[in-house]
Amino acid sequence: MHKQIASRLLNWYEDAARRLPWRGVSDPYAVWVSEVMLQQTRVETVIPFYERWMRRFPTVQSLAEASEQDVLLAWEGMGYYNRARSLHKAARQVMRDYGGKLPASREALIKLPGIGEYSAGAIASIAFGLDETAVDGNVRRVYARLFDVDTPIKSPEGLERVEQIAREQLPAGLAGDYNQALMDLGAMICLPREPRCEICPLKELCLARQNGTQAERPVKSAKPEIPHWTVTAAVIWKDGKVLLARRPLNGLLGGMWEFPGGKLEAGESLKDCLKREIVEELDAPIEVGEAFGVYKHAYTHFKVTLHAFACRFVSEEPDVDGAEFVVWAAPEELQNYPMGKIDRDIARRIVSERSAAR
To answer: What are 139-193's pLDDT values in tens digits?
Structure first.
């Protein structure tokens, strides 16, 4: 079945391939950037970010020479910010160790920050024409249906089975187009729900379709319940400016700026939570005033409902002059600080209300 799958898929891809700004380019850096952005983010979301990024950082050198804050600001809105930090670190490593040229081998690529097995295979095959597999979620789903894999797809056995299939099916000399064709088939035809089997170029070869199990493939393991956290944030004013704190470099939204606050503990009121958090973070008591909105966001492994309040320091206030992780910012300056989605929503409200008051 190996030759039939590759032949039919590549013929279909020649006519039906998605027109994407990183396809058909000769620059490995462009392929690398696109593959990192596509980790955990949909193609239609990535496109405008990719185009903006390539205008801002058109070369490995321009990215390597940028500050981390500029990199995070350019990435803002796509989430999973560790990807941006890793890309930045890798660019500096490429400049230092490879003279500014991305290494061509899968083994060398996977040693760079932010490049895993899938990304290394995708870059090696697409940018350098090497015979390497690239197995992401779309590809796993396609193969699980084509070969009617009845093992949970993310179990060790399921992962190894699909990797084995991918190696066996890879057509020599055509890996780049073949891997992209599989990705497109999964994104356009072999959909997670209601696959479009009637127009699939591989329908006659699909074992799951023959066995009537396509809706049951891939087999998924039970998902744990997603926790929901209630958190608070303080919009602390002083002389027409608000206080921002920079998150620790390690962890969620590392290096981004936020309105300080934290998670509600059992038995606390929202205002008591906020007072405690600000004392713990800034060693200064605050007066909590009017509510400044309720904001919700879902991350990969948890959900958040954030309650923001307008606040002020009541006596001693932190000395932030020259501080690296705390700063006073005027509303018009907030756009210069990279933030996560919720904090950016709060910043937009601040700017909007200040503009309306003028």
So the answer is: 999 999 999 999 999 999 999 999 999 999 999 999 999 999 999 999 999 999 9
Please give the helix or strand (H or E) that residue 28 lies within, else none. helix 28-37
Helical (H) or strand (E) element with 308? strand 303-313
Say what the pTM is. Answer: 0.87
Q: Which band of pLDDT confidence, cut at 50, 70 and 90, is reported for residue 358?
A: low
User: Would you say residue 318 has pLDDT above 90?
Assistant: no
d(CA 260, CA 271): 13
Q: What torsion do the CA atoms of 47, 101, 109, 177 make, to the nearest 10 degrees?
A: 50
Q: Are strands 303-313 and 228-238 parallel, antiparallel or unpaired?
A: parallel
Q: Which helix (H) or strand (E) holds 142?
A: helix 137-146
Instruction: Return the H-helix or E-strand segment holding 186.
Output: helix 175-188
**What structural domains and CATH numbers belong to the chain?**
2-216 (1.10.340.30), 228-357 (3.90.79.10)
- Checking if the pLDDT of 36 tops 60, the result is yes
Annotated active-site residue in 35, 76, 132, 258: 35
What is d(CA 29, CA 69) in angstroms, rounded to the nearest whole number?
21
Q: Which amino acid does the sequence have at 102?
A: L
Q: Is 65 helix (H, G, I), strand (E, B) or coil?
A: helix
Respond yes or no: is residue 35 known to be catalytic: yes
Question: Which is nearest to 257 in space by CA: 114, 87, 72?
Answer: 72
Cα angle at 27 between 26 and 33, to 5 degrees? 130
Helix (H, G, I), strand (E, B) or coil at 234: strand
